[in-house]
Write a structure and sequence with these properties.
- Strands 4, 5, 6, 9, 10, 11, 12, 16 and 17 form a nine-stranded mixed sheet that branches.
- The chain has 340 residues and is an alpha/beta fold.
- It has eleven helices and 17 strands.
- The chain folds into two domains: 252 residues, Protocatechuate 4,5-dioxygenase, Chain B (3-Layer(aba) Sandwich), CATH 3.40.830.10; 80 residues, no CATH class.
- Helix 7 packs across helix 11, helix 9 packs antiparallel against helix 10 and helix 10 packs antiparallel against helix 11.
- Belongs to the MEMO1 family.
- This is UPF0103-domain-containing protein.
- It comes from Parathielavia appendiculata.
- Pfam families: Memo.
Length: 340
């Protein structure tokens, strides 16, 4: 069915392969040689969460996830991302044979996508929307770079990819998809990339919550209108982000929101993450891909995984700007890994 073109090359990231390679090398070189008392890549770290904005914004943060990701045994890489280009309920599969990068093409695992399609649980991504979608594409050049570092220049040795868009889903639907995908997560020759930015704050995102009296409240949605909400009281760990609780800066409130979400992810409890997102309304665009991945990790853990495995650890957090004024905006980026 053809090759999905690298539609964002030359705009969201460098289109020239030499310039792109140099840029990615620079980002990766900034990451320390060790994380969490382990050399990189981290043994067993087959799952990562990484952002998907333009590389000038999120590339340095994404490098922390990619340098932690262990691809040495990988023969297949799943990429889960949210849909920004059309409304999607549930999950959708690619119909393309390959994904283009400025470096070369990565081959789609058609056998796996065919098997998933046979379950009747997946739709197909409309081609025009898949080409426009950036949440999957932004990881392909980074993945190529890490595969090149792992396997050398012979791209025939590179693992195939399984791109999946994860759309709107209830808590139970996320859990169901996670259980379905857990059979692949158990395979030690399969790696996973979960694509997500974190808080999108600002009027253009219709999300400008404030921190008042220890509670996150969205002042743009007053309770009198029936559309307002309050979050969970902020957690002690997240309040460390605030220098002056009596008058918190907006960028500190954003950090509190994201810390609450990251704490929930690190808890390993899919239900806890779903609850925090529901009650804070944090605009984590990849909340459903993260939810599906957490549910898959839980399903594998129930089968008796070793202690310390199957939970995400965040290693980097950044924001596109430190918001101080209500007219400003910001997008947050976070990187995490999980050992399976």
């Amino acid at each position: 069915m053809g090759t999905r073109e690298a539609s964002h090359a030359g705009s969201w990231y460098e289109g020239d392969p030499e310039e792109l390679s140099s840029q990615l090398d620079e980002f990766l070189d900034r990451v320390p040689a060790t994380l969490d008392d382990s050399s990189l890549p981290i043994p067993g770290a087959r799952v990562v969460i990484a952002p998907h904005a333009g590389y000038l914004y999120s590339g340095p943060c994404a490098a922390w996830a990619y340098k932690a990701l262990n691809l040495r045994s990988a023969k297949r890489v799943f990429i889960l991302g949210p849909s920004h280009t059309y409304y999607l309920r549930g999950c959708a599969l690619t119909t393309f044979d390959k994904y283009e990068t400025p470096f070369g093409d990565l081959v789609v695992d058609k056998a796996t996508t065919a098997k998933l399609r046979q379950t009747g649980r997946f739709s197909d991504m409309p081609k025009r929307h898949e080409v426009d979608e950036h949440s999957l594409e932004m990881h392909i050049p980074y993945l190529w770079k890490r595969l090149e570092q792992t396997f050398g220049d012979d791209s025939t040795k590179y693992p195939s990819i399984v791109p999946i868009l994860v759309g709107n889903a209830s808590e139970q639907e996320e859990k169901s998809f996670g259980q379905l995908l857990s059979q692949y997560l158990e395979d030690p020759e399969t790696a996973w990339i979960v694509s997500s930015d974190f808080c999108h704050w600002g009027s253009r995102f219709k999300y400008r919550p404030k921190l008042l009296d220890g509670v996150i409240r969205d002042l743009d949605k007053p309770k009198a209108s029936g559309a307002g909400y309050e979050s969970l009281p902020v957690t002690p760990n997240s309040t460390k982000m605030v220098e002056n609780p009596a008058k918190p800066q907006t960028h500190e409130v954003i950090a509190v929101l994201d810390q609450m979400a990251m704490d929930a992810v690190e808890s390993g409890a899919h239900s806890e993450f779903y609850k925090v997102i529901r009650e804070t309304h944090n605009t984590v665009c990849g909340r459903h891909p993260i939810g599906v991945m957490m549910a898959a990790l839980e399903a594998v853990a129930e089968d008796g995984s070793e202690k310390g495995k199957g939970k995400f650890s965040f290693v980097q957090y950044q924001r596109s700007s430190l918001v101080k004024e209500d007219w400003d905006s910001s997008v947050s980026y976070a990187s995490a890994y999980a050992i399976v």
